[in-house]
Amino acid sequence: MSPAGAPEPAVARRRWPRGLAGALAVTALLALYVWKIAGRGGAMVRTGEPALVGIGSGVLIIPLIVLGLIVREYRLAARVQRMADTLAAAGELPVDDLPRSPGGRIDRAAADVVFDERRAAVEQAPDDWKAWYHLAFAYDASGDRRRAREALRKASGLFAR
Asked: Which one, 86, 94, 142, 148, has least CB within 10 Å?
């Protein structure tokens, strides 16, 4: 307890990452869908008819694939969060300061300049996870989500070493 009139010390609380509630809700809906598919596949297998057993067995593979993909994405998200925490602690987190149109779209020419800088950094240090992390956000600013995700996966793999 602090002396009379003294302010209470700040308690550090760990906040949930932004978007986690939405990701958990979508995962729960996907789990319900997988459960229903697995039930249908199991019912087909239990009939004993060769054609339905074959189809049911194929259907039962779908939940396994979905579960594997969910685990893969959550592992990537956790590692990207650790990378962001590491960069934030070092003051190296990417800053979104690109000029925008009145509608909020990033100016493409400015994004291309940043992208060229980030790509050059990766070419100079291809084994640097920080360079790949920054390149991922440059890809994202340029509107190339697929390559942004690939760059994040590359950064994640280098970070895990």
From this structure: 86
Please give the Cα distance from 56 to 49 (Å, whole number).
10
- Single out the residue of 92, 59, 84 nearest to residue 156, CA to CA: 84
Q: Tens digit of pLDDT for each residue in 37-65?
A: 999 999 999 999 999 999 999 999 988 89
CA distance 160 to 78: 11
Phi, psi of 106 (to 5 degrees): -70, 140
| CATH class (in words) of the domain with range 108-160 | mainly alpha
pLDDT per residue over 75-115, tens digit each?
998 999 999 999 999 999 888 888 888 888 888 888 888 88
Q: How far apart, in whole angstroms, are the C-alpha atoms of residue 89 and residue 132?
A: 18
Per domain, the residue ranges of the chain are 20-89, 108-160
Q: At what angle do helices 129-141 and 108-124 cross, to 10 degrees?
A: 160
